[in-house]
Design a protein that fits this description.
Blueprint lengths: L56 H13 L13 H10 L2 E3 L3 E2 L23 E2 L6 E5 L4 E6 L10 E2 L7 E9 L2 E10 L7 E8 L3 E9 L9 E4 L5 E5 L3 E10 L2 E10 L4 E10 L17 E9 L3 E5 L2 H8 L12 E4 L5 E6 L5 E6 L4 E5 L5 E4 L6 E6 L5 E6 L3 E6 L5 E6 L32 E3 L6 E6 L3 H5 L8 E6 L4 E7 L21 E7 L5 E8 L3 H4 L4 H11 L1 E9 L6 E8 L10 E6 L5 E6 L3 E9 L1 E2 L2 E2 L9 E10 L20 E7 L5 E8 L5 E5 L5 E5 L9 E5 L2 E5 L2 E6 L4 E7 L14 E5 L4 E7 L4 E7 L2 E10 L3 E7 L2 E8 L3 E7 L12 H4 L3 H25 L8 H4 L6 H8 L10 H12 L10
Antiparallel strand pairs: 1-55, 2-55, 3-4, 4-5, 5-6, 7-8, 8-9, 9-10, 11-12, 12-13, 13-14, 15-16, 16-17, 17-18, 19-20, 20-21, 21-22, 23-24, 24-25, 25-26, 27-28, 28-29, 29-30, 31-32, 32-33, 33-34, 35-36, 36-37, 37-40, 38-39, 41-42, 42-43, 43-44, 45-46, 46-47, 47-48, 49-50, 50-51, 51-52, 53-54, ...
């Protein structure tokens, strides 16, 4: 590491047209970071016993999920660090990384509690039909838990399937020894073995009874969907080629299954069944040898090509086909077809008169069974993943692929509840149902580009993330679309609002006539002004590759030049509700003979202005001015002056001006250029890193005159990913990390990054962000499916904190109003990296297990209040009516309005709240009455 010197700044003495060259003594010295490697031990957290508290239903249900995530990890083979190890390692150096918050809603059916009580949240897969206070949660490795969701108690044991696999499972209630017990039907499939349906029942703490009910004919058949009736008499499963329908009979746990296996015309994606009593008075045909049962089993299936098939009274038909001379060789079904792609979910209504289905069209479809008449609820915010009908049939719960869920009233078809998480693009952890059938177009399973995000400069609890109109829309096509800005509150961890920044396709017709998905623009850059009154965005759209693949190279290039759309937009931010209003739109802010890519967007920290860097080699500085018409100031409907944005300064980056200066030779593509830039802290200078591969030049531009003050060589290697300023240092991230002292004119230190496979780990997922409050910067090094976060001081190459995150980081942001960093990964989870001792650091809404809300304290308080009430009643009885008379002034109850309490507790964010002692005195001041003013004698 080169030490700092006391020499004066040399930037003003340098010829702006001459590049500075270092002598032999001014060499870069890269310091390899000593990685803090920890023993990858899987630790089992302590199982804290928690007693019941009826007033904490929601918290206990959430705690169930946390217990599951931190439970027995003996069968987990992924090499990731335990959360406690991550926190303890960071805290030892004064920094910590939080537990992740958020994530994607799992592709499983939501669950209504037995009374559909909206005050309690249930986070699981199946509700116990015998004990409504318990829920069942299963894992693909064969582990199945039973939780008391009201008390939030962690189970003492785990049900493990024999094959240690589970494809799907359902819960039934079967009478065992005159008592009803939960029986778990599990679909299992081990490699090279047949698919099986196995029944499990826990009899006591140590005895687990199991019974194999069905085996597939061939080893390549796996039952991926399994459903059963509540009493366990009927079981229906689906494999890749057909359906399995069976009846279960027997006493206690001596169960026997009679199954029928038949082929279907399409791949089954979802199914639902319904059992009704057979109508009295219907006679059995004379030629029918099998007497039908007293119940009718109707099965509806949704298939991969959009069709739905209704099998009415399917068991009777299958039994009649088993005879020696069956009239029909195939099971006849009634067909319903409206969906263009896979039917992702279909359910019966409670009365059996309607079917409810959903798919990739962003539309909920209601089918009248008798007439096949359809009713639509279109323009949902995402594709439908799952549908569940409430026990009373008065509500539908819908899970959408934009990481949200809503409850819709069946009478008015209006949402009554809406829950949303982070809706950014996320990696697919399971195969999408639309890809079960090979189609035109492509769906990426990985996040292909970093996700633009920003924290509000004035309020670090407001996170703004660029999202799409659903997971499918974002990941389909050749371009990862993200035309919507989602505002997220980190304190309450809830979505505040969403607003479209570019054109969207809010309709069910979201595919072309050729079957390709309609691509939407992608927001590539966002930045807030220092006063948070302005937002600048850049959106980019190109024709899908499927539309131009069959063209000649010349025609393809000409079409790309004509149809590519790049817009720079300026939005005014409302001070009341933080809504956005478009003020100016600049078409192709950087262009030569074609629109050029905007490589970087930066906001001036000292004034409301922005700068853009384009692939044309130009830097443009944008500022606003009051809009005038005929010499008069233009105003809006509220009387406010209107502004418009325009380019006030244009600076060329050396000899790189214009994309045509790097022509493509025959057989070779034009050299790719990269760039990044950042303002100085006082806004007087703009540091720009721009050039082709291994150019390594950083330009220092005067933002007032447009003069290039100096050029620094060898500041980056390969492609520059980010340049940040932390006065007097500039930090560049490319194939390595370099910290340069501008005042001392020397390289402070460098960090050599590990080599990575460019095909599996895109370099664009390397991030760099500075925190001006704590005078630190954070760096993210990407790996195949994980990332490493390191925090440095610019004066010291030894990292303050270095941790591994088991997901790829897609965004890294910081705020000028608080210290610390917030990272977003490809599982839609948020991580905070903060200094332990800094009370003003960015804080996420803490998980409930971190709050240590022990319900025994609440129970003790309740019991204590009850004891005091009993004692008070006894005292009143003993004293009889000899009570002391009190003045009316002393018996008045203190009344405190909600507004007063809201003004007290909502006056500031959590990190800026007064001490507990001060809050105590303020609350007691509201409860006590003011003393009467004494009058002079």
């Amino acid at each position: 590491m080169v030490g700092k010197t006391d020499q004066k700044p040399r930037a003003a003495d340098v010829d702006p047209n001459k590049k500075r060259k270092r002598d032999a003594s001014d060499k870069q010295r890269n310091s390899d970071i000593k990685r803090n490697r920890k023993d990858e031990k899987q630790s089992t957290p302590k199982s804290d016993k928690r007693t019941s508290d009826a007033n904490k239903l929601k918290g206990n249900a959430l705690k169930v999920l946390s217990e599951l995530q931190n439970g027995d990890t003996a069968n987990i083979t992924t090499k990731t660090k335990d959360q406690s190890e991550l926190q303890s390692a960071g805290e030892s150096n004064g920094w910590k990384i939080s537990s992740p918050l958020g994530g994607r809603i799992a592709d499983i059916d939501p669950v209504f509690s037995s009374d559909a009580n909206p005050t309690a949240s249930v986070l699981t897969t199946h509700l116990s039909p015998v004990e409504p206070d318990f829920v069942w949660v299963g894992c693909s490795d064969g582990r199945i838990w039973k939780f008391n969701w009201r008390q939030g108690i962690k189970p003492e044991d785990t049900l493990m399937t024999k094959s240690q696999t589970a494809l799907d499972f359902c819960i039934t209630a079967i009478k065992v020894n005159e008592d009803l017990h939960d029986v778990v039907f599990v679909s299992e499939k081990k490699q090279n073995d047949e698919g099986t349906i196995v029944a499990y029942c826990r009899m006591g703490a140590s005895h687990l009874a199991s019974q194999i009910l069905f085996k597939t004919v061939r080893p390549d058949q796996a039952i991926h969907v399994l459903r059963a009736t509540a009493d366990g008499r009927y079981v229906v499963g689906a494999h890749s080629e057909g359906l399995v329908v069976g009846t279960i009979a027997g006493q206690d746990l001596e169960l026997e299954g009679d199954f029928f296996n038949f082929d279907t015309s399409d791949i089954v994606c979802t199914l639902d069944l319904r059992v009704t009593s057979r109508q009295q008075g219907l006679s059995t045909p004379k030629k029918q040898t099998v007497k039908p049962s007293s119940e009718v089993l109707d099965v509806i299936i949704g298939c991969g090509r959009g069709a739905m098939f209704l099998y009415n009274d399917i068991l009777t038909k299958l039994q009649s086909m088993r005879g020696p001379k069956p009239k029909q060789k195939e099971v006849q079904a009634r067909k319903f077809h409206w969906h263009r792609r896979a039917v992702r979910s279909v359910k019966w209504s409670r009365d059996g008169h309607y079917l409810v289905s959903g798919g990739s069209e962003n539309t909920l479809v209601l089918w009248q069974v008798d007439t096949a008449i359809t009713t639509y609820l279109p323009h949902l915010p995402g594709a439908i993943e799952n549908i569940v009908v409430s026990p009373s049939g008065a509500q539908y719960a819908i899970h959408l692929d934009d990481n949200s869920a809503m409850v819709i009233s069946t009478s008015e078809m209006k949402p009554v509840t809406y829950v949303s998480g982070i809706q950014s693009a996320a990696r697919y952890f399971a195969q999408p149902k639309d890809t079960l059938v090979k189609r035109v177009g492509e769906v990426s399973k990985e996040v292909r580009h970093p996700i633009p995000a920003a924290l509000s400069p004035l309020d670090a609890t407001k996170l703004h993330v660029c999202v799409g109109t659903g997971q499918q829309a974002m990941m389909s096509g050749s371009q990862q679309s993200a035309p919507i800005l989602q505002s997220f509150d980190l304190d309450s961890f809830t979505s505040v609002s969403k607003q479209a920044l570019a054109r969207t396709q809010p309709t069910d017709v979201n595919i072309t006539a050729q079957g390709n998905p309609i691509s939407e623009p992608a927001i590539t850059h966002i930045a807030f002004s220092s006063d948070a009154r302005w937002l600048a965005t850049v959106d980019d759209w190109s024709p899908p590759t499927g539309d131009i693949d069959n063209m000649s190279p010349d025609a393809k290039e000409h079409l790309l030049q004509e149809r590519r759309e790049i817009y720079l937009k300026f939005w005014s931010v409302s001070a009341e509700d933080e809504s956005l209003a478009l003020t100016s739109r600049i078409n192709s802010p950087h262009s030569t003979s074609r629109p050029e890519t905007v490589l970087a967007l930066a906001a001036d920290p000292a004034a409301p202005r922005f700068a853009t860097l384009g692939d044309d080699g130009l830097v443009r500085i944008w500022h606003f001015k009051t809009r005038q018409t005929d010499g008069l100031t233009s105003k809006d409907t509220k009387g406010q002056s209107l502004q418009s944005w325009s380019c006030g300064l244009t600076v060329g980056m050396g000899s790189h001006v214009g994309a045509d200066v790097i022509p493509a030779s025959e057989g070779h593509k034009a050299a790719k250029r990269s760039g990044s830039m950042s303002f100085s802290e006082d806004g007087s200078s703009l540091f720009v890193a721009f050039g082709s591969q291994d150019d390594g030049t950083v330009y220092i531009v005067d933002t007032h005159t447009g003069e290039t003050r100096t050029m620094l060589e060898n500041m980056w290697k390969g492609e520059v990913r980010s340049l940040q300023v932390l006065s007097p240092y500039i930090v560049t991230l490319s194939n390595d990390l370099r910290v340069y002292d501008v005042v001392a004119d020397e390289l402070q230190y460098g960090v050599k990054l590990p080599k990575r496979d460019a095909s599996s780990v895109p370099a664009a997922f390397a991030h760099l962000q500075v925190d001006k409050k704590s005078r630190t910067f954070a760096m993210v090094v990407p790996y195949t499916h994980s990332s490493q976060i390191a925090v440095f001081k610019p004066e010291d190459p030894q990292p303050l904190c270095i941790e591994t995150v088991p997901h790829r980081i897609t965004s890294l942001v910081s705020s000028a109003s608080s210290s610390g960093f917030v990272a977003l990964d490809d599982a839609a989870q948020l991580w905070s990296v903060t200094e332990v001792s800094d009370q003003s650091a960015i804080s996420l809404s803490k998980p409930l297990e971190d709050l240590r809300l022990d319900t025994t304290i609440a129970d003790d308080a309740i019991n204590g209040d009850a004891d005091e009430d009993d004692q008070a009643s006894e005292i009143d009885f003993a004293t009889g009516g000899d009570n002391m008379e009190l003045d009316d002034d002393e018996t008045h109850t203190a009344i405190v309005s909600r507004q007063k309490l809201a003004e007290l507790f909502d006056a500031a964010p959590a990190f800026a709240m007064p001490s507990i002692e001060d809050m105590f005195y303020k609350v007691t001041g509201l409860l006590t009455t003011k003393p009467l003013a004494s009058t002079a004698a």
